[in-house]
Design goal:
2 copies of one chain form a homodimer. The first copy, chain A, contains 11 helices and 12 strands. The first copy, chain A, is 42% helix and 20% strand. In chain A, α1 packs across α2, α3 packs across α11 and α7 packs across α8. The model of chain A has no long low-confidence stretch (mean pLDDT 94). Chain A is an alpha/beta fold. The first copy, chain A, folds into 2 domains: 129 residues, ATPase, nucleotide binding domain (Nucleotidyltransferase, domain 5, 2-Layer Sandwich), CATH 3.30.420; 176 residues, Nucleotidyltransferase, domain 5 (2-Layer Sandwich), CATH 3.30.420.40. The interface between A and B is large, with 53 and 53 residues.
Amino acid sequence: MAEPFALGMDLGATTVTTLAYHRRYGVLVRTRIPSRVSDGPAATLKRLAAELKRVRALSEVPWAAYKAVGLGAPGPLDLKAGLILKTPNLKGWNRVPVARRLRRAVGLPVLLENDARCAAWAEFRLGAGRGCRDMALLTLGTGVGGGIILDGALRRGPDHSAGELGFVYLDRNPGAPRAAFGLPGSLEALASAPALVRAARASLGRGKTGPLWRLCQGRPASADAAMLHRALRLGDRHATAAWDQAGQALGLAAASLINALNLERLIFGGGVMQGGGRELLSRIRRTAKAGAYPQAFRRCRIGAATLGPEAGAIGAAELALGDPA
Amino acid sequence: MAEPFALGMDLGATTVTTLAYHRRYGVLVRTRIPSRVSDGPAATLKRLAAELKRVRALSEVPWAAYKAVGLGAPGPLDLKAGLILKTPNLKGWNRVPVARRLRRAVGLPVLLENDARCAAWAEFRLGAGRGCRDMALLTLGTGVGGGIILDGALRRGPDHSAGELGFVYLDRNPGAPRAAFGLPGSLEALASAPALVRAARASLGRGKTGPLWRLCQGRPASADAAMLHRALRLGDRHATAAWDQAGQALGLAAASLINALNLERLIFGGGVMQGGGRELLSRIRRTAKAGAYPQAFRRCRIGAATLGPEAGAIGAAELALGDPA
């Protein structure tokens, strides 16, 4: 029997990425639409189902050749029941049975998985993690997500909540920066895109000169990620300070993960890496080297994700296809 | 064929624990001798071999009924080659082939394993971890060690260096307390026995009253762990401050581990727990609850190790016996 196709979908807070995927032929069709999750679950699910049908039609492959749909979504999820639970990234969503609804709409089994774990699985099978057995991916975007693969298996844990690397803590001080969730000093509070912008804005408030000051026209509150990336290239000290903060926090998290788990690869992806990845990686490596056991550090290659923003949808499709025949 | 016996030995920085062990009959004989590792590897190994022979004789079980020796030792180790590598806890030891030397001396295969991982395995099989699949043990003593069990298997990693939970980082500030190894802000720098003593001494320097001040007769430098434990029971604020620091750091580490790995049990052992375990656990739970994802936190039971200081030697013997027939 011919190997089947799968539809992969990544439901982000702002964008939905959908693709038609085959293990041999790769990605046949890819689309991106705004997710508009604030419309509420019912309207969003209708749009997701329509998009799956559209991508299937664009692929010109009959439904019968499709085995399943893989859906990556922000956690926390109930994977067994196929529910999106209450989550800060999808406001107003609570115990939404996405898997069942989409299955009914498109007539294929739907596998739900955490979005960052999908991306980690894609990098492991097809990207920067190829050829290793033990790795973690950290995605640095609006939030910080993660996925851990140990002995070649995706770590889910008994409640399917493993891999939340944005809530590893690196600063025990009560005044440390904090994210929407958890205690101060989490990785998400120190190294997400908003954390970088916050750090640069705070730095601007203390010294009103340099490229970033000019780019934001003297209004720190209007400084954004794109300006930061440009300013970083120009050697701006405010952008540099933000990168130093994130790089050090990520480096400590890397050292902690290497010491705890003895990984072969630590891979960083997400929007923050696209804008200033090289600068971040050098900082991460420097701190990780100083904080990790030497032999464990030597084993671990620290690098950038290679599959880009499609990783989540590709991983969802890969997982939906299941083990190779 | 009858189930075999094993000798289990835990080589600590100050004490060697040795025992004769059988899966059905438990611990038959146990001894403790000073390790005197500063005598150097050759003299120490001779003493270890003599102790194994002595315990075998005390067990009144013939050599033929013994299958193997399990040896727990402080990391880093090269498990495949059976070497103790250079380590801060065994000064002057470097690439010492302990497994081969002991095997030659006693005529049994010798399995070398990290001491904290041995203790974790013992707790998993026979102690506080019984009945779960995913757990971590943290041992709080002169140093902080750890062992992680995932899906029922001891996590070693490609270089056998996994589980070094003393070097998970909780304070990114350069002025944070530091241990003998790594960067400032490690768990070992914040929650080991010496870290507690350091914190209490620093607190004494700022306020020269209370039970601990009287116990140490006004000399903070002479305050030790035993005084701290007594003072803690008396509600002393310096001891309380030290426990607050350690409990918060351990709670953040617990939250990080729960978020990253979705564990069913987090178990704390070692000398620090014997002196003030209940007080520490309540602090750990409070911080972990505030920092972890709710559903993952609810799944995880946080508690004390139950096997005491023999855990390492028992785990070493258990591992040496291998999978049950």
